[in-house]
Design brief:
Strand order of the largest sheet of chain A: 5-2-1-9-10-13-14
CATH class of the domain at 177-318 in chain A: Alpha Beta
Order of helices and strands of chain A: EHEEEHHHHEEEHEHEHHEEEHHEHEH
Oligomer: homodimer
CATH architecture of the domain at 177-318 in chain A: 3-Layer(aba) Sandwich
Strand content of chain A: 15-25%
Number of helices of chain A: 13
């Protein structure tokens, strides 16, 4: 069974770990968000691609949800001594990935090829694709100190400001002129099941959907498209998804997630306690599926992954 | 007393440590070799500038003679895991210097300005100047495995091949079209004493002298120019200076050092056991001065520095 997963950061990483525990990793293609890519100390950093790759390699720092396990931050400390900004945490081992990526990009290689090289060299047999080889950058219009508007890069908003500023608008710079990376549309078209990981629908999955052609491919694929809600009840499992959904005019609930993925989402896995949203989900033509979506260890990751994989058969029966 | 020192790597670092133990660091200008600058993982590395800067900051790994004290190499290990070359050792803290330099160079800043920024930010009050803002690259024509010629960058020769290949020629690519960095000629002209550190005369001091205008300034300055021999008896104190001097047709002795620095060298500090070379040195119009030139600790570094500083008065008496 060929699985194609749209992936953002931490929540996606957990489900991806679960998926490769349940299936042959060769059957998995990950389409990763690059809207939060950024330049740090002259290096091209792709946080979500790396989180997915490290998770699939079994090397992610699970506690933090980003970066490599058993990491140190000595270069970062030295950067601080040189007077450089240090709010974006790059670990010493992690730096190797960014140095490699930056050098290869300067050599003229596309990000998709480099992402594949890094994954292979870290022993990942699943395929990891960036949504696009062209730069798409998520920006957040936030309330500045004086109450006026200030545009922040996603990392300025998320890491530097710890997502504590009021969000007024989210934009994806460069999206209109970007194209899907090689293999992205095919992976959606050829999949037996498309999974939308439990990532922030606005800034993790939103940039992927903003790349022209991807939403259409999701609409057109014969594969069922199953999402996992990143929202339990009225709050995000982690991160600022709630604030960002509100800023986009979406209710902070599984229904808001379903609305963000209309009209191509077939089913949404939600927490069993969220049955109250079932009528609204069905009205939006989304089949609710119930499973525990809060992943706290490898066992719960694999259990959720198994529930997602089972969705294909469930949906086939429902047709 | 304003001191200007021409500096290569390890031996220079020791004398520089001694000099700043003896005088106000504000009175010291270091002109560093950039002939062995290299690109590693896409980063611009200036080994000799960094060795001088770290030594002056009191942060050099004295045992190794390069890099920072209390260093780790975790990024390097991770680079190896990514399949990258790892024969050039960049430490995790040291990486910050190269990342900073590389980014600033990409911003269009000249190397001399960046070198000053790094030195100041590490608390160095002496002035550290690269010999040139333009790239000058030392290359070594060596015997290849098949006996034929192979051109190596200096670091390939020195680090990768551990200086164990036969040297046939040394060249300084780009030297003819390079100019001295801002402040270099002035520092030589305005000095009260010019010191040539105990560095390899071919590949550490040679590139500095190959920059048009610098040798002429050394010849023209009113300041006495005092060298410290990197050779004791018939062998280098450390490193491949012997092989490189032979390849340049120089005798491996204090006389060979004097010859490399003719006609502008006024005095050469040599080991007391090397009095046998006195007639040849005097014939070359170089005053031999005797002091222990093997530096094994801060005390011996300071003692040699004091002997070098005393040379000015000695030479004045001799006139």
């Amino acid at each position: 069974m060929r699985i194609t997963a749209l992936a953002g950061g931490t929540g996606a990483a957990k489900l991806l770990r679960g998926l490769v525990a349940c299936l042959d990793p060769h059957d998995l293609t990950v389409i990763g968000n690059t809207g939060d890519d950024t330049e740090v100390w002259g290096l091209h950093v792709s946080p979500d691609l790396d989180t997915a790759t490290y998770a699939l390699a079994g090397r992610l720092d699970v506690g933090r949800g980003w970066g490599l396990a058993d990491e140190t931050f000595r270069c970062l400390e030295a950067m601080g001594r040189l007077g450089e900004e240090t709010w974006f945490n790059l670990g010493d081992r992690d730096l190797a990935t960014h140095l490699y990526r930056t050098r290869r990009l300067r050599d003229g290689r596309p990000l998709s090829a480099i992402t594949g090289e890094i994954a292979r060299r870290l022993g990942v047999t699943a395929r990891v694709l960036p949504m696009s080889d062209e730069p798409v950058r998520t920006r957040v219009r936030a309330a500045g100190a004086d109450g006026g508007d200030v545009w922040l890069t996603f990392q300025e908003y998320f890491v530097r400001e710890r997502a504590k500023v009021e969000v007024r608008e989210v934009a994806f710079d460069g999206a209109e002129s970007a194209g899907p990376a090689p293999g992205v549309l095919e992976a959606i078209h050829d999949a037996d099941l498309v999974v939308v990981c439990p990532s922030n629908p606005v800034t993790s999955v939103g940039p992927i959907l903003a790349v022209p052609g991807i939403a259409r491919a999701l609409d057109a694929t014969a594969a069922p498209v199953v999402g996992v809600s990143p929202i339990v009840g009225g709050a995000a499992v982690s991160g600022p998804a709630g604030d960002l959904m509100r800023a986009r005019g979406l209710p902070v609930s599984p229904v808001g997630v379903a609305r963000a993925y209309a009209p191509w989402l077939d089913a949404l896995v939600v927490e069993p306690g969220d049955r109250t949203f079932e009528p609204a989900l069905r009205a939006a033509r989304v089949t609710p599926l119930y499973a525990s979506i809060v992943m706290t260890d490898l066992q719960s990751e694999a259990a959720l992954a198994a529930a997602v994989l089972a969705a294909r058969a469930q949906l086939a029966r429902a047709c």
